[in-house]
């Protein structure tokens, strides 16, 4: 066959495939219309979320745009390529989906295969009874009592954080705070989850910091695999492609195995997350008397705690410091409260002192409002659900999405939403606002299990910093922060550049 004939055949095949895809998607795009749901008109071939593939916007920003386009609607349908998604905007409906009717929406809906990628068998990914049983087992780790036990570790890491900044405060050099606080949170998580002192602030090339960055900075191929798991999971599963990088998986499995072997051999016990899992390792589970946790199951829980703990907390602290530098009146009021309370505790950062800092709580809440680390919530409909007071049915298998960023930036609930205003969270203002429009950690039975840990860690880091330093803008500070479109967690693209100056009355 000549080259011209070969090209003609290839061109014909491509045209036929495009035609088949066009016909298939046109049928798929009738899903919401056929069921009489309100919906946004999709475009060929990517439905309503095609901009995600261009990486011009993050998924959270795309859903926030959809939220705004649905203004005046309580809910509506969209398409992620061929897959129908149900978007909910109404606070009362959000309550139903997350809490009241949780039995219909108890799973996140991620498709995975533990045989291909054992580390996907974690609390975040698991479904049904397996998730429920594991949640019950792990919840005691995040009680107030456990937080108090881990608190001193957080404070020790916070003191290391302030010592690290001494050089910058003395020289008045600019410092990129997102990387600095990420090292602090890595130190905290490494100690509380693994019982390992890695001192990332003193040793910037520490393994934990490198592998922490490696987990969230995906290669192009890893990004493609992740997209395939969302759109057509059968493809990566057929080719045995893991969702977790094999190198990341190997590192954490090695660390967990070696740590557990050392503790068991030397009868070492620590009050940390890993110890709870070690204690469960040899216990029988359930009425069936199943064996206790395997090494892979333990590693899966530790790695999701590690990822969720260090990244979300570090970006929250970074965004908060940026807003405090841009709003010096807020920073002055907060630092005054911090130093006033610490005086009552002889300059010591204690659990009780943190609890007394009411304005600090407002500042952290407003940071999480403007910059929610997780910008949307997704739930999988596990059985047909009739929407109350309608004849509409959400069918089993449809994914429900709550656009958290859209809610947090809705002027109906948060007037002048781009303004950083901690007083949105005073008692009077909160009482006038509907419930379920502020969801930085989700809500209901599937609310983030590490919520309390993350908030306390954030507050400890901020108290240690603001009791000693004042943060100011510098010539490298952005007028507004650009968000990295490639990452699932809301992250500043170019970091947060500030100057740290000594306060006159530090503790």
TrEMBL record:
One of its GO terms (molecular function) is monooxygenase activity. Heme binds at residue 448. SUPFAM superfamilies: Cytochrome P450. PROSITE patterns: CYTOCHROME_P450 (PS00086). Pfam families: p450. Its cofactor is heme. Its main location: endoplasmic reticulum. It is a peripheral membrane protein. InterPro entries: Cyt_P450, Cyt_P450_CS, Cyt_P450_E_grp-IV, Cyt_P450_sf, Insect_CytP450_Detox. It comes from the Eukaryota. The chain crosses the membrane at residues 6-32, 219-239. It is found in: Endoplasmic reticulum membrane; Microsome membrane. Gene3D superfamilies: Cytochrome P450 (1.10.630.10). Keywords: Endoplasmic reticulum, Heme, Iron, Membrane, Metal-binding, Microsome, Monooxygenase, Oxidoreductase, Transmembrane, Transmembrane helix. One of its GO terms (cellular component) is endoplasmic reticulum membrane. Belongs to the cytochrome P450 family. May be involved in the metabolism of insect hormones and in the breakdown of synthetic insecticides. This is Putative cytochrome P450 6a13. It comes from Zootermopsis nevadensis.
């Amino acid at each position: 066959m000549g080259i011209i004939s070969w090209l003609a055949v290839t061109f014909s095949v491509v045209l036929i495939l495009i035609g088949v895809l066009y016909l298939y998607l046109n049928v798929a795009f009738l899903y919401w219309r056929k069921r009489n749901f309100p919906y946004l008109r999709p475009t060929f071939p990517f439905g309503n979320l095609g901009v995600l593939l261009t990486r011009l916007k993050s998924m959270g920003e795309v859903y926030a745009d959809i939220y705004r386009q649905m203004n005046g609607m309580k809910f509506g349908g969209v398409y992620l390529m061929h897959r129908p998604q149900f978007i909910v905007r109404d606070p009362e409906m959000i309550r139903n989906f997350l809490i009241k009717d949780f039995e219909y929406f108890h799973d996140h809906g991620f498709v995975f295969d533990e045989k291909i990628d054992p580390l996907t068998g974690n609390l975040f990914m698991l479904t049904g009874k397996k998730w429920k049983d594991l949640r019950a087992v792990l919840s005691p780790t995040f009680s107030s009592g456990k937080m108090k036990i881990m608190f001193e570790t957080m404070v020790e890491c916070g003191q290391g954080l302030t010592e690290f900044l001494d050089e910058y405060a003395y020289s008045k050099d600019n410092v990129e705070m997102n990387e600095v606080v990420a090292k602090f949170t890595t130190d905290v998580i490494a100690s509380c989850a693994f019982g390992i002192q890695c001192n990332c602030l003193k040793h910037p090339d520490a393994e934990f910091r490198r592998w922490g960055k490696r987990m969230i900075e995906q290669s192009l191929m890893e990004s493609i695999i992740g997209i395939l798991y969302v759109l057509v999971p059968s493809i990566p599963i057929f080719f045995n492609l893991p969702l977790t990088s094999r190198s990341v998986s190997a590192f954490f499995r090695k660390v967990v195995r070696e740590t557990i072997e050392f503790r068991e051999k030397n009868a070492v016990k620590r009050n940390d997350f890993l110890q709870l899992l070690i204690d469960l390792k040899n216990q029988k589970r359930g009425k069936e008397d199943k064996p206790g946790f395997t090494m892979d199951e333990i590693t899966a829980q530790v790695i999701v705690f590690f990822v969720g703990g260090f990244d979300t907390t570090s970006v929250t602290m970074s965004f908060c410091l940026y807003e405090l530098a841009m709003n010096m009146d807020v920073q002055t009021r907060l630092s005054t409260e911090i130093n006033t309370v610490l005086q009552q505790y002889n300059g010591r950062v204690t659990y009780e002192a943190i609890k007394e800092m009411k304005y600090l709580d407002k500042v952290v809440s407003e940071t999480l409002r403007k910059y929610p680390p997780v910008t949307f919530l997704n739930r999988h409909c596990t059985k047909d659900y009739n929407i109350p007071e309608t004849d509409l049915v959400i069918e089993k298998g449809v994914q429900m999405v709550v656009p958290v960023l859209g809610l947090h930036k809705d002027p109906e609930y948060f007037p002048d939403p781009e303004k950083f205003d901690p007083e949105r969270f005073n008692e009077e203002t909160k009482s006038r606002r509907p419930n379920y429009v502020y969801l930085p950690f989700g809500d209901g039975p599937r609310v983030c299990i590490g919520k309390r840990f993350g908030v306390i860690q954030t507050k400890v880091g901020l108290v240690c910093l603001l009791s000693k330093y004042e943060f100011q803008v510098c010539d490298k500070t952005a007028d507004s922060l650009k968000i990295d479109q490639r990452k699932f967690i809301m992250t500043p693209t170019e970091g947060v550049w500030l100057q740290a100056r000594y306060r006159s009355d530090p503790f």
